Amino acid sequence: MIVGIKDSLKLFGISVMVCCAVTVCNLFLNFDLDLRAIACFVENMEALAFYDALRMTTKVVCGVTGACLAATTVVMLVFYIKHYIDRHAREIGILKALGYSDLKIAKGFSVFGLNIFLGCLLGYLLSLLLMPMFYEKQNVGNFLPNLSIKIHWLLFLPLVLLPALAFGAIAVGYSLRKLNQSCVNLLKGIEKVKGKNRAGKDRADFVSEMRSSVLRSRKVLVFFIFFSSFIFSDTILMSVSMRDIASDMMGIMIFLIGVVLAFTTLYIAVSSVIRSNQKSVAMMRVFGYDAAACKRAVLDGYRPASYLGFAVGAVYQHAMLRIMVEVVFAGVEGVPEYEFFGERGPFRKLTEATTLYFPTKTANPWPPN
Amino acid sequence: MIEIKNLTKYYGTGEARFKVLDGISVRIEAGESIVLLGASGSGKSTFLNVISGLETLDEGSVAYDGKRLETMSEKELTAFRRDHTAFIFQQYYLLPHLNVEKNVKMGADLDHNKDFLPLLEAVGLAEKRKKFPAELSGGEQQRVAIARALAKHPKVLFLDEPTGALDEKTGRLVLDYILQLQAKQGFTMIMVTHNANIAETADRILRMNSGKIVSDTLNPRKKTAYEIGW
Ligand SMILES: Nc1ncnc2c1ncn2[C@@H]1O[C@H](COP(=O)(O)OP(=O)(O)O)[C@@H](O)[C@H]1O
Ligand SMILES: [Mg+2]
Questions:
Q1: Domain range B30-56+75-218, its CATH number among 1.10.132.80, 3.40.50.300, 3.30.1360.60, 3.20.20.80
Q2: pTM greater than 0.95 (yes/no)
Q3: Which of A97, A147, A206, A322 would disulfide-bridge B109, Cβ 3.0–4.6 Å?
């Protein structure tokens, strides 16, 4: 079949992402189940406040990581499949012309479920490894003496098996939908230019023309770039303040998840823009456009989305932290005053991070292949 | 004037290393129209790519009015291509997401040429200028490629089997457009083909075999695209 295991492994980024998600979710869910079991042993007021804050945090963290990462994974998977089908339109057209059914071709895409399975499995194992350390860090000052690790194996089902099956099914379902077009259109690659590019108004110079057409031909990428910057600024801020509010480990963990998520999204987005414009860039180079002009034509259109993502991420995180400090941790002693623009505040650190981040975004698209 | 001296190029490394171009020396005058003939695999495309600055050479030199390509940096080569050359390939290589007009703009912009519609008219595509490449026939796509290449007013036009993917009728039509525009604008033209009939349309015919130029003849009686066999 045309989608091989090799193709699916190229989607390594998605595996890394679900791996992170499952690690975090399993740690917190397991922890939450153990917490629930000792609810009746919590006696004094101080311990109770601590206990409530812990349970609140686990819920928020699980909900946010689980939902966000699952949603991103779906979007990325769907995008990857769309991109894959666009790029292999000709081969798929030939297979269809030879008499392969859509279902037969689509079945091949179920290997993407394997990516998810491997990522989840790895994440699950990683969480088992981290669990002792995690419990120790969470139970600071030994407020809850009865708390001990009991591994809830049943979580394997919803955290590993179910996602693998669900994502495999999504992959097949979506590709089935995409494959439902005539052989001739697939062979000619007509689908790509119909309608959506008509609207473009005339621009002064060719590079702007090209930039806007690249942007219009891959609109989802605008979202990805936005999302990537959003996650980056959001998680950097969150990790910085988590180190102050919760623990070092929380801070580092969130930082790592953020960086992995932001960079995999960015990598998938940028590499797919570059790959799908390789021939055009090569032609521009033949005609004497320099590398900088090609870069401007292909990547610069996404820059505003990136800036916007940064800004929205910062504002969003600022609001979230305010809520957390003022509502969730309201009853807990020793939560430091939270200062957004202060000397130690996240805003300072974000501006520093930004300068490191931008060069990676403009990877040189030349030479192609 | 293009002066090529002892041009040699290898492909591959170690055991698999072989000579694609074997000490070619030839002098091409400004405004000449040249057809380069040779069997498939004889090194024609490689020769074209090297003398147009798309690929590097291993030995020898290529000089345009005394300026030597092999000494240029990547940046200088880019500027050289921008100011001097244009290319037409067998596979057209139009930009799929841009319509005909904007494809031509890609060439026109490089010479600050705002007045490229007459060129589209000259290749008979004025009323298809809002169409996308996938909506055009092969012959029409190649005519867009011609307009795109000439819109930058090149001093030298390189063509690699420009009619290789077209049937006889369309091939003649496309060739006719090329020849007429060359006669009118007077740029130097170097066209690669394996169709010996097409050679009769050139001022000068070079034959290539195994990386060497084996004959170099002037053509006393140039024919038009409709007078030659196919
Ligand atoms: N990038 C390359 N790497 C290795 N060998 C090549 C490459 N390009 C062409 N060749 C080889 O060089 C020879 C000449 O190729 P080419 O110049 O394309 O011939 P022609 O255009 O006359 O058909 C052929 O044997 C071809 O296989
Ligand atoms: Mg060739």
A1: 3.40.50.300
A2: no
A3: A206
